[in-house]
Amino acid sequence: MGNKSVYVKKKFSDGTIKSNKQSLKDIADGSTVQLDVPNQLNQDTAQQLLNTAFEKFSVHASNQQDPTDLNTVFENGSNNDVYKALKESIKQKMMVDSRKPSSFTITSVSLSDLHQTGMKTYTLSYALTYDYYYDEATDQEKKTSGHLLQNITGQIQVKKIETGYTISKSVSGPTVVSEDNQVKSPMPLPEELIGTWEAKQDDKTITMTFSEDGTVIKKTDYKDDKKEDTTKTAKVEKTEKTSDGTYRYYYQSGDRAAFTVLDDIGANDQYTYGVKISGSSITTVYWESGDTSGSPKTGISLTKK
Q1: Which of 13, 19, 66, 84 fits as disulfide partner to 78, beta carbons 3.0 to 4.6 Å?
Q2: CATH no. for residue 69?
Q3: Tens of pLDDT along 135-158?
């Protein structure tokens, strides 16, 4: 075979790139040869470039000021069309909407694809998540809070320069491909209370079911068929924590008997009802007036079904 060697080359509109050469005499029959083109953009470097770019953009998103060192990542700094498109992509929520987010972060930045388009140019496809967080202070009326997540995709052109790589222009995007709006009103009841709880007694079984909308349903099933089973339903507007694990109910509507072991508490009842949560068990509690500063009296204990 002499000194013959093998290599690969690819032609672009601006020139041709060639891989390293491999001598044919050093290649065994049936073996696999990897012919790499030296000094090309790899996935690790491309991912790091994306991370740095979106870190720079996050600075603008947090204070509406462009970082002074933008041109280390974006060609032409703040005049770069990728950077300008990113700013435009958050403008509606960060500047135009009447309710503005309390914070904004960019998460899950990932390189989806890396494709060489010229001797010194590449197209990078990326995906990431915009995380807008709204706290209660931004909604005085309904007190809603939570995250609004937008999944974003886009493509950018990167080119090689003397000092490394720079983002030169936009190919497509950024585009919102999906949105998960987790902004909602606070639940009237503690989250750990939601579900069905049960107490078995000698003559009856009592279940209490708490729903996310504040509905409380108490069912009493008697073993004696001669006794009529009962169902009591009430709704809680909100709860307030009075001590460790103990909450008072703010009654909204329905039969207050749903809150206690009694099935008939009387029309003139002045008690304030609540619940004590202790892991996998709860205990109904009540105060004899609207003053809940002292220790409540306890009722029945139930365990999670």
Answers
A1: 66
A2: 3.10.450.50
A3: 999 998 888 999 999 999 999 999
